Amino acid sequence: MRIIFATANSGKLREAAEVLGPDFEVVTPLSLGITEDIPETGSTLQENSLQKAQYLFERTGLPCFADDTGLEVDALGGAPGIYSARYAGPGHDHEANMKKLLADLEKLPAKDPEFRRARFRTVVTLILADGTPHFFDGVCEGAIAQAKRGTGGFGYDPVFLPDAYPGRTLAEVSEEEKNAVSHRGRAIRAMAGWLKSI
Ligand code: ITT
After folding, report:
1. I want to staple 6 with a disulfide (CB 3.0 to 4.6 A). Which of 60, 66, 162, 185 is the partner?
2. Residues of the chain with pLDDT under 70
């Protein structure tokens, strides 16, 4: 099945293509000549995910899906959440975002063992030919590391310690290991399972 992934994030694309496997041909907006920024003005992950998928569906009429992901840190009241991409200011500067996150946690007094608990949450929206949106979500529980470690993955992976791999950040596990337990892996597998069931 040929399907558009409404993303400009190459890390997300690589992961999605691997999770979906050879039954799916995953196409990007860029490869269809759609180069503008896709609007993302909602106030929840679901609204943003729906907005991105609808934007591409309206432009192309082709089956498409979008992913919106946020990192929720308990000690920061769930921040950065939907603002994860621009936590340190406008743009997608992962290094600046991680630096701000670690500095914000350092400033806080509470240091009990649960202090650094966090999770990635993804909402995927799928739109098929009839235009109806279908939602799939995935969560990856873990904690924020004291410092960055590892070179794999993207975004906040070097500072995220998933419960599934004690002692390693998501940037220190293989892509296969990340996909097996990640927020996006779970949401996209749920979507693929549903697609195979209809
Ligand atoms: P698109 O909207 O084009 O898909 P984006 O990077 O803007 O790409 P989001 O709006 O979902 O994606 O932003 C979420 C941010 O959270 C993203 O920029 C990353 O910094 C981070 N993020 C998302 N998924 C992640 C993952 O699997 N590991 C680490 N960080 C991730």
Report:
1. 66
2. 110-111
> Which amino acid residue places its CA nearest to atom 4 of ligand 1?
7
Question: How many domains would you assign to the chain?
Answer: 1
Active-site residue, selected from the candidate residues 23, 37, 67, 68? 68
pLDDT tens, residue by residue, 111-129? 677 889 999 999 999 999 9
Q: Report the predicted TM-score, pTM, of the whole model to 2 decimal places.
A: 0.96
pLDDT of residue 91: 82
Domain of residue 133: give its range. 2-197
Write phi, then psi, for 183 (nearest 5 degrees). -45, -50
> In whole angstroms, how far apart are CA 44 and each of 30, 41, 68, 137?
25, 9, 9, 13
Ligand 1 center–CA 69 separation, angstroms: 6
From residue 23, give the alpha-carbon distance in Å to each of 56, 72, 186, 190: 21, 33, 17, 15
CATH number at residue 80: 3.90.950.10
Q: Please indicate whether residue 68 is annotated as part of the active site.
A: yes
Whole-angstrom distance, CA of residue 180 vs CA of residue 144: 20
